[in-house]
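Title: Comparing notes on inverse folding

I've been comparing how different people in this forum approach sequence design from structure. To keep things fair, I'm posting one structure and asking everyone to reply with a full sequence. Here's the target:
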């Protein structure tokens, strides 16, 4: 599905329009695509070729949707803006449809949505599944995406598309990230089923009670435990706010971004403690703080052996990237309990 157009010094000096038109003609002849994204990289953006205009020319010439997706990496710090822009570009393909009561799942990057708790509840309620982006789907499925009754946004990269669809087609969206607090998850389920105009399944209430019971079992062991937060699959400040409510103490929080939507969780954290906040980055420059802060565990990606020598446990949360719903909460509670138990053992080994 991906074709590279290699530019030479002539293209860089005099512009790549001619080469792009030539390459596009070959692509159409060989693949007969239903739609094409022209994904620019740093060189194209530096020399300033107008790929929005080129995309418009090619759309008119070949009668297929051609969307320019700008991914100039020198203007950002990670790959998420590229994913966001590619998903948002799909709005150009969509066409108004009669509502069929379905839900679209936007932003699922890892795992199979069919394996999640959220999917199981939707299936049991008889809710039809529409398009999944950026999961594998066809151009026709994207075109029909506005037939949905609700968009479920499971990652921030899909928020601009959901907002555009709400504005253009009146489709409501529910932000259903990988939350940790059972109350937040319950509230999100309630919003979703309200939009679907369906009663909330009793099983959702049962799942909520299970998580609250698990909380009570974990509380005595985790209260007052200090930790460092790195990069995880969860909503950064929502998770740390929840862990603070359990009595854990974040000493350092690494975050990719900060928005107004995070303010309530930040206020909740500051009401209980005052952690350092830094931009998520390479772990190497931060390793000296282990000997300064002496955390019990590190949540994210690090080298377990290096941490263990300092009496620090490692909490990996990657499996949660394939989960949605109360399973995210129960996983985190179990993972925190294990990390605390490991930390006690490692601290004894390190003589702490």
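Reply #1:
Here's my take.
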């Amino acid at each position: 599905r991906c074709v590279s157009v290699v530019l030479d010094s002539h293209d860089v000096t005099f512009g790549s329009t001619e080469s792009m038109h030539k390459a596009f003609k070959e692509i159409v002849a060989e693949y007969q695509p239903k739609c094409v994204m022209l994904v620019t990289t740093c060189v194209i953006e530096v020399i300033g070729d107008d790929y929005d205009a080129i995309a418009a020319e090619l759309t008119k010439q070949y009668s297929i949707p051609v969307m320019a997706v700008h991914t100039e990496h020198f203007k950002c710090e990670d790959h998420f803006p590229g994913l966001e822009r590619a998903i948002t570009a799909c709005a150009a393909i969509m066409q108004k449809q009669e509502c069929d009561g379905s839900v679209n799942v936007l932003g699922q990057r890892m795992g199979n949505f069919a394996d999640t708790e959220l999917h199981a509840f939707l299936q049991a309620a008889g809710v039809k599944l529409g398009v999944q982006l950026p999961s594998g789907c066809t151009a026709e499925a994207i075109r029909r995406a506005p037939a949905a009754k609700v968009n479920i946004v499971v990652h921030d990269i899909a928020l601009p598309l959901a907002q555009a669809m709400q504005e253009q087609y009146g489709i409501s969206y529910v932000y259903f990230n990988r939350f940790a607090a059972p109350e937040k998850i319950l509230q999100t389920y309630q919003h979703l089923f309200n939009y679907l105009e369906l009663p909330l399944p009793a099983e959702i209430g049962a799942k909520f009670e299970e998580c609250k019971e698990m909380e009570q079992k974990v509380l005595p062991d985790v209260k007052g435990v200090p930790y460092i937060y790195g990069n995880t699959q969860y909503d950064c400040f929502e998770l740390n706010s929840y862990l603070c409510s359990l009595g854990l103490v974040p000493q350092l929080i690494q975050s990719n971004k900060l928005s107004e939507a995070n303010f309530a969780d930040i206020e909740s954290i500051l009401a209980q403690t005052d952690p350092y906040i830094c931009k998520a980055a390479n772990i190497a420059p931060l390793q000296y703080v282990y000997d300064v802060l002496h955390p019990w565990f590190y949540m994210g990606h690090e080298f377990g052996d290096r941490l263990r020598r300092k009496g620090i446990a490692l909490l990996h949360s990657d499996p949660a990237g394939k989960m949605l719903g109360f399973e995210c909460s129960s996983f985190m509670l179990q993972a925190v309990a294990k990390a605390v138990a490991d930390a006690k053992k490692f601290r004894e080994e390190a003589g702490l």
